[in-house]
Amino acid sequence: MVPRAAWNYPTPAPGYEELADRVAVYAGAMDACTVDGERVTPQPGGFYGGWITADVAGPFKGGPGTAGW
User: pTM of the entire structure?
Assistant: First the structure.
């Protein structure tokens, strides 16, 4: 078990109601996460829960020097 590896929004803001029954997972907290068989790279920095694959174009926020943009 990994504490704080996942989160949800039980009562999401208007326009995001579809998230109510979903759970988000920090890929960096897991041994591995995959999308269609491709192992994802966690978004840098530990604050964001993004999953980066070959199909996702950056730049990616979270690494050193990326705060505030």
Answer: 0.71
